[in-house]
Every structure is written in structure tokens, then in C-alpha cells.
UniProtKB/TrEMBL annotation:
Its main location: membrane. Keywords: Membrane, Transmembrane, Transmembrane helix, Transport. It is a multi-pass membrane protein. Coiled coil: none annotated. This is Amino acid transporter. GO terms for cellular component: membrane. InterPro entries: AA/rel_permease1 (IPR002293), CAT_C (IPR029485). The chain crosses the membrane at residues 37-57, 63-86, 107-131, 196-215, 227-246, 258-276, 297-319, 352-374, 404-422, 428-447, 493-513, 533-553. The keyword Transmembrane applies. It comes from the Bacteria. It is found in: Membrane. It comes from Runella defluvii.
Length: 563
């Protein structure tokens, strides 16, 4: 049984199945260029992160969160290069799932595919919730008051209500976020002894985007490109105009809660970069996937990193970090600054806040579209391999999209987004995604050992001595910061990092491993150790559910049975 759990598909087998259509599914329309793919990557990366979760990260880390963006950008850059090589070598829609199938076998491939389901679905929940916050702001600008309890989840409303009461008792003035949450909880109707609160706008926008993803990749491409262009213009406007209202005193202290406060934003900041991997899910709809997929992944990462770091500094310079725990930080900072402005500037900034809210409603829709396109294609590929029922892989004869999978994706995102809290769902996605990134980086080491040909390769830097030297330097730094026992007591998962690092140092010395994939493994593993125990528990529960489904269905139905 152990051999069958790790049965693999060869690169040539994967490519031949797609070329000959032996998987029994319909073909997809090849319409995407490098420009379209780069736009798709930007659409996926710049979504919930820059328009919503960046506020929560700044609340904990202050202006120093900009450095966290830089660090995680480097981690994603190592991983992005590995994705680029895989995408060039195996240009199919399975993303990390297919790459793992080729490198490490079926069981681990299923685990990664199952983790990607969580990543894509949860990412869209976060974006939908953030979209709802900006949508409410837009309605207010047009004089339309939508009931707060129909656009807020129970946990956020309850916590906001309690915090509102504490601020009032202390003689303070509640910020707009607390005011809206207090109203939502106070005015929510009671049914059966429970307050009824739900985020209807988040669910409705998910339904709309699902319909668009269903009717075709050409329509999605055209809409997505237009929305991304609009989104980038809005972000540049926020940076340029906001720079004139930066108060350097707001950057002091640079890290108000120390490094621990900065690292509290790991989930939120890492979530901001999730998306570059989704480019690879469109491989079968690319005109020249082996050339264009690597380029688009790298281009989108570079562009988004520059925008993230810049806007983090601007937001933290315009207002105190204590004000940024909101779902719509870009609109909020201009609204806040306008309260202290006079004359035409007050009117201008207030209007700009409304314009940003309207723009964000439009722009965040592109991120929703990117994930709603990516998730069904993962399921489609898993279905081709027999690990999911055939219905997941059926291509609509007219629209050339995975129809059943697209509809199911919409349902699984729309319903939870009605009731879930943004922080909860942000934390939920990180462990599985980082695990997938680690496996992809390790897979490159396997491809290099097999000397698998590829039109794009991760630049080779001999890690024979470097990996070990870096480990010694990291151990010395850890010792200087208080010793190993204290660090391991605070973060026991660090022992896993050190053991893996030791193994990679030995393997690199013996096998001359390429340094960049190894750095990708280590940086992603470090980020995993920074996540809370609740993240791990939720991921393990999700993993157990996935394994039950695999052994109940996929293991017995796999196309590789007997091979």
C-alpha cells in the first residue's frame, strides 16, 4: 500500500494526457497572453491584502509592517521562481497539486490539492468581506443607508459593541468602525433568542463573480484587465495624494509593539501575497505557457511588492497605527485626515474617501474573479486524475469552462462569507498555503536531480557550503537574542525549522542543492512557525477531512491504480 500511496505521474505522461485528450475531458480556449497573465497575477495578489487586511497588520506592527512586506516578498520571490520553473516544465492547470504529483506522488499531491481548496476559497471569503466594507461606504456616500446588521458578521459586531462601550466609559470618542459595529449589534433583530447578523453584500458579489467565471475565460479576461488597470490607478492616486498628508510623527515609534507586534501581522501580510501561484492554474488557456507563465509570475510579484511597501508607509504616516484596525483602511485614512482639515482640503479629502470606496468596490472585484477562476481548475485537474468524481472535470461545451466546479466554488464561498469574521478566515488559509509553497520548492530540487528539461530554470547557486554557513549564523544570532531554550519555549515549532535546516545543510553538502529553492523552503517554514496554534489546529482538522475523502474515494478511483 505504501508504494501505491506514492505512485507518481511522469512529466511526459501529464503533457501527453493534455495533448491527446486521453483524460476524457473537453479542451479549453487558449487566449491568454503574457499581459493577460500578469494582469491576472496582479488581480489575485492585490485584493483583500492592500484594501483590507493591511489595516489589521498595521494596527499591530505600525510602520514597521513595511519591513514585514519586504521579508515576505523575498520568501514569495524564492517560491515564485520555483513556481515559474514548474509552470514552464508542466504547463497544465493543476498548479502545486500537479507539481507535487510528479515530484512526490499521489498522497502528498492530494494533501496539497486539498490545501489549495482551502487557500482559494478562504481567500475569496476575505476579499468578499473587505469588498462589503467598501460597498457600505460607497452607499453612504450616495445617501443610501443599508442596515448595518445585514453587512456585518456576528463576531465583529459583538466585539465592536463591547469595545464601543469601553471607549464611552473611558470618556473617549469611538472611531467610525466601532460606531457602525455598535449600530449593527444594537439594531439586529432577534430570532429564537439570537441576534441575526449576516454579510449579504459579500455573498451577492460572490454570486455575481461566479456567473462571470462560468460564462467564459475571454469575458473574464477582458473584465479582469480593465478592473486591474483601474485598481492600479486608484492605488497610485492614494500613494501620491496621501504622501502630502503624511505626518512623520505617526511613524514614531516605528515598531510600537516591538518585533512581536510586527510578527502578529504575518498571516495578514502573507495573505496579501497569496495569488501569484494562481497564475499557473490558467496554463491550459495560455497561448505560450512555457514562455509566458514564468514571466508573468515574476512581473506580478515585483509590481505588487513595490506597491505594498509604499502604501504601508503612507497609511501609517497619515494616521496613527491605532486607528487602522478597520476593514476599509484606504478609505478610512482620508476620512480621518479630512476631519482635521479646513476649507477646500476638507471637502477634497472627504470626497476622495468616497471615491476610493467606490473604486475599491470595482477594483476588488478583479481579485474575486481571479480566485473564482483558479479554484475550479484545481478541481478539474484532480478530477482528471480520478481523485474526484468526473463531474468536477467536465468542460462546458459552449463556454469552455469547468462548469460544475465553478458553481460549487461559488456556493462554498458565498455561504460562509455571510457569517464569518475576516481575521478568522485570514488565519485559516496560511498554514496550508505555506505547506504547498514548501513542497513546490522541494519539488524543484527533485526536478534538478532528474535533469528534467525546462525552458525556464531557477538560477543555480551552489548551496554546498552556504546552507550550513547560514544555519551556523542563524544559531549564533538566536543565542545572542536570549538563547535556544527561551526561543523554543515561546515557539516550540522552531525545533522543526532547525531539524529541517540541519537536514538540508547535510543534503546540500552531499548533493550540491540549488540555494534558492532551499531558501524558499526555509523562509516558508519559518513563517509557518510564526502562526498561532489555532491556525495549525484548523488546518489539521481540514487535513483529516481531506484524508477521509481520499481514502474513501480517491485512493480507490485513481487513474494510476495498477500502474
Amino acid at each position: 500500500m505504501s508504494n501505491s500511496l506514492f505512485r507518481k505521474k511522469s512529466v511526459s505522461q501529464v503533457l501527453n494526457d493534455i495533448k491527446t485528450g486521453e483524460d476524457g475531458h473537453g479542451s479549453m480556449a487558449k487566449v491568454l497572453s503574457v499581459k493577460d497573465l500578469t494582469s491576472f497575477g496582479i488581480a489575485a495578489i492585490i485584493g483583500g491584502g492592500i484594501f483590507s487586511t493591511i489595516g489589521n497588520a498595521s494596527y499591530d506592527g505600525g510602520a514597521a509592517v513595511s519591513l514585514l512586506f519586504v521579508f515576505i516578498a523575498f520568501a514569495c520571490a524564492f517560491t515564485g521562481l520555483c513556481y515559474a520553473q514548474f509552470a514552464s516544465t508542466i504547463p497544465v492547470s493543476g498548479s502545486a497539486y500537479t507539481y507535487t504529483y510528479v515530484s512526490f506522488g499521489e498522497l502528498l499531491a492530494w494533501i496539497i490539492g486539498w490545501a489549495l481548496i482551502l487557500e482559494y476559497a478562504v481567500s475569496n471569503m476575505v476579499i468578499a468581506i473587505g469588498w462589503s466594507g467598501y460597498f457600505m461606504e460607497m452607499l453612504e456616500r450616495f445617501g443610501i443607508h443599508f442596515p448595518e446588521y445585514l453587512a456585518t458578521d456576528f463576531i465583529s459586531a459583538r466585539d465592536g459593541f463591547n469595545e464601543f462601550q469601553e471607549v464611552i466609559k473611558a470618556g473617549g470618542v469611538p472611531n467610525p468602525r466601532l460606531v457602525s459595529q455598535e449600530e449593527a449589534f444594537r439594531t439586529a433583530p432577534m430570532i429564537g433568542g439570537f441576534k441575526v447578523l449576516m454579510n449579504i453584500p459579500a455573498a451577492l458579489v460572490t454570486v455575481f463573480i461566479t456567473v462571470l467565471a462560468y460564462i467564459g475565460i475571454k469575458e473574464s479576461r477582458t473584465t479582469g484587465n480593465a478592473l486591474v488597470l483601474f485598481k492600479v490607478i486608484v492605488i497610485l492616486a492614494v500613494i501620491i495624494i496621501g504622501a502630502f498628508y503624511v505626518n512623520p510623527e505617526n511613524w514614531e515609534p516605528f515598531a510600537p509593539n516591538g518585533m512581536n507586534g510586527v510578527l502578529l501581522g504575518v498571516s495578514a501580510v502573507f495573505f496579501s501575497f497569496i495569488g501569484f501561484d494562481s497564475v499557473s492554474t490558467t496554463a491550459e488557456e495560455c497561448q505560450n505557457p512555457q514562455r509566458d507563465l514564468p514571466r508573468s509570475i515574476i512581473y506580478s510579484l515585483i509590481i505588487c511588492t513595490v506597491l505594498y511597501v509604499t502604501i504601508a508607509l503612507v497609511l501609517n504616516g497619515m494616521v496613527s497605527h491605532k486607528e487602522l484596525k478597520v476593514d476599509d483602511p484606504l478609505a478610512y485614512v482620508f476620512k480621518s485626515v479630512s476631519q482635521n482639515a479646513v476649507g477646500w482640503q476638507k471637502s477634497f479629502l472627504s470626497s476622495l474617501s468616497g471615491i476610493i470606496a467606490v473604486s475599491a468596490v470595482v477594483a476588488m472585484t478583479s481579485a474575486l474573479l481571479a480566485y473564482q477562476i483558479g479554484q475550479p481548475r484545481i478541481w478539474m485537474t484532480m478530477s482528471r486524475d480520478g481523485l474526484l468524481p468526473k463531474s468536477f472535470g467536465k468542460i462546458h461545451p459552449k463556454y469552455k469552462t469547468p462548469s460544475f466546479s465553478t458553481i460549487l466554488t461559488g456556493v462554498l464561498v458565498a455561504i460562509p462569507s455571510l457569517f464569518m469574521n475576516m481575521k478568522f478566515v485570514t488565519d485559516l488559509t496560511s498554514v496550508g498555503t505555506l505547506f504547498a509553497f514548501i513542497i513546490v520548492c522541494a519539488g524543484i530540487l527533485y526536478l534538478d536531480k532528474q535533469k528534467t528539461p525546462s525552458k525556464f530554470k531557477v538560477p543555480y547557486v551552489n548551496g554546498k557550503y552556504t546552507v550550513g554557513v547560514l544555519m551556523v549564523a542563524a544559531l549564533a544570532w538566536t543565542y545572542s537574542q536570549g538563547g535556544f531554550v527561551e526561543h523554543l519555549t515561546e515557539k516550540p515549532l522552531l525545533i522543526v525549522l532547525w531539524l529541517v535546516w540541519l537536514g538540508l545543510a547535510i543534503a546540500s553538502f552531499l548533493q550540491r542543492f540549488s540555494l534558492l529553492p532551499v531558501l524558499g523552503i526555509l523562509t516558508n517554514l519559518y513563517l509557518m512557525t510564526e502562526l498561532g496554534i489555532s491556525n495549525w489546529i484548523m488546518f489539521l482538522i481540514w487535513l483529516i477531512i481531506g484524508l477521509v475523502i481520499y481514502f474513501g474515494y480517491g485512493y480507490r478511483k485513481s487513474n494510476l491504480i495498477g500502474k
